[in-house]
Automatic annotation (TrEMBL):
Pfam families: LOR
Top-rank lineage group of the source organism: Eukaryota
InterPro entries registered for this protein in UniProt: LOR (IPR007612)
Organism: Zingiber officinale (Ginger)
Protein name: Uncharacterized protein
Amino acid sequence: MSEPGKLMPIISKAYCSSSPITLTVRQRPRVISGGGFVVMNSTQNAVFMVEGCSSLGAKGQLRLKDGHGGLLLSITKKESIVQSLSIRNRWDGYSVDCEGEKKFIFSLTDPKCPIGKEIKIQIEHQEATTKGCRQYFQVNGSFVHRTCSIEDHRGNIIAQLGAKGSNGRDWYNVTVQPGHDQAFVIGVLAVLDNIHGESTRC
């Protein structure tokens, strides 16, 4: 767990809370709104939106937006000859400023043959780069069954998924622990959604 009162922003400290936050993820039908998903808070207000291939018209492209439609994160699946020979797929997440400049935020790698393999999440942000270090996270459990967690390198859970009633695949909860960046967690869920062929996939 994080130290009491300590915020650990990766995208922005605006998305870090001093108490646990439970958000509800609702997948959108592709035929109605282009797919992707909406993330709501306890008052049923949209706090994040994720757009995928069906909305953007390009495979391996994801966008994370805030509840007002402002772009927070652009996520791209790397495609290259070297990447095609790798045993893992790689996804890179970037923030984009008002002038269109991109800043690398994180990379996520998933095994091309996922049986028995872990999904590694590598984080690199301004503070970590300045200090010459990197933070590592890991996804454990089953995203498909909504029983997975995101853990730090010490094994502390920073976010936990849970099914929501009988519609667990279309609606599910994610609880983010105090101090951790909710926007980053949703960015990771966007990639997991695409990897498993769900709402953000064409």
